[in-house]
Amino acid sequence: MNLNLFFEIASGKKFYPRNDTNITLKVGIFSPYFDTLGGGERYVFTFAEYCLQRNFDVEIFWDTEEVIAKAQQRFDLNLSKLKTNRKIYQCFLSSASYLQKIAKFFWMKKYDLLFFLTDGSIPFLAGKQNWLHFQVPFQLDGKNFATQHKLSKVNRVICNSFFTKRFIDKTFGIESEVIYPPVSIYDFENDGTKKENIILSVGRFDQIMNSKRQDVLINVFKKMCDQGLENWQLVLVGGCQHNEDELLRLRKMAVNYPIDFRVNASFSDLRQSYEKAKIYWHAAGFEVDEDKNPDQVEHFGISLVEAMAAGCLPIVCEAGGIKEIIEDKVNGYFWQSEDQLQNITQNMIKDLTKEEEIIINAQKRAADFAKEKFFTQFDERLK
User: Fold this and answer.
1) Is a pLDDT exceeding 80 seen at residue 257?
2) Superfamily of domain covering 185-369
3) Class assignment of domain 3-179?
4) What is residue 61's predicted lDDT score, i.e. its pLDDT?
5) What crossing angle do the helices spanning 267-276 and 302-309 adopt, rounded to 10°?
6) pTM, whole model, 2 decimals?
7) pLDDT for 75
C-alpha cells in the first residue's frame, strides 16, 4: 500500500483521494462499552457502517461476534462485513501482560485509521491516523505530561456535542471537533400510524454514567393518574444488559398504574413506540448541577431526536446537550421541576391540536441530525 496516496504527513489532514474507489483502508474501532449498546455504541457502530459502505476493511476490538448481531438488530445497521479482533481486544484489558502491551503497539501500526471511544483515559494509539471520540464531558487531570504525550499521537479529537466539547477542551487544553451523533430520522417518520394516548420515554435502565431518571417520570405520571388522568399510558423503553436492580425498583414503583416497560426492545418495536406516542418525556440531568457534574446530564439526546422525527411533542428536562436540540416553546418545551413537568403536560393533553406548529418545527429540527449528514461530516474529514 502506497501511503503517499493517503497522508500528507505535515498536515495530518489529507486521508485518501475520493476519486479512487479501489482504495481500501484498514480501520480498527474500539469502545470499552460495546456490550451496553447505548448511544456511544450507536455512534461507533454507525461509523463502522459508514466505513463498510466505502469498502474499508473494518474490525472492532472485542471478544465475541455476538455483539455485532445485537447491534445490527438494535440500531438497524448493515454490519454483515464487520469483523472482530479478539487478539488486540485482550491487549486493551487491564489484565494484559507487558508482552501483550508491546505487541499491541506493533499490531496497531498495521491500521490506517484507529477510532477509539474513550472512557476518559487516553490510550497510546499507534495507527497511521488516530481519532479519539468523547461521548462524556469528563473532568480529569488532563494536562499532565503522560496524557499530553499520548494526545500528541492523536490526529483528531471528536465530541458528540458542544456541551461535551466545552469540558473536554478545558480538561485537556485542546481544540476538539463536534460531529453530532447519527439519527436515522427517515426510519422514524410516521407512516400514517394513528397516534395514541401514550407518553413515551426512551433510555437505558442500566445505571451507567448518567441516570435517565425514569423514577421521576413514574412519580409525575402517578400523580397525574391520582388526580384524575384517564385513558393515558406511560411507556418506558430501554436496554438493560447488566444490573437489573434499578429496573426492578422502577417496576415496583409502577405497580397498579398504566405504565408499560419495554426492555431490550427490537428496532421495529422501538419505531412502533415512537409512531404511536403523542408526547415524549425526558428527565436525564434532573437535579444535577451540570457545571459541577457534567457527566451526569444528557450529553446529546439521540432518543429525543428520534421522537421529534416521529412527530412526538417533546417535554424535556433543560440540561446538558439537550439545549442544543430544543428551543423552548419553538420545537418543544423545557421543564425544571416535577410540578412544571406535570403542569406543562396536563396543559398539552387538554388540546394537543394547538401544538401542531411545535411538532412540525421539531420534525424539521430532527432533520439536522440525519445519518446522511453524519456520513457527510466524515467524508469531509477523509478527503
Assistant:
1) yes
2) Glycogen Phosphorylase B; (3.40.50.2000)
3) alpha beta
4) 96
5) 60
6) 0.84
7) 87
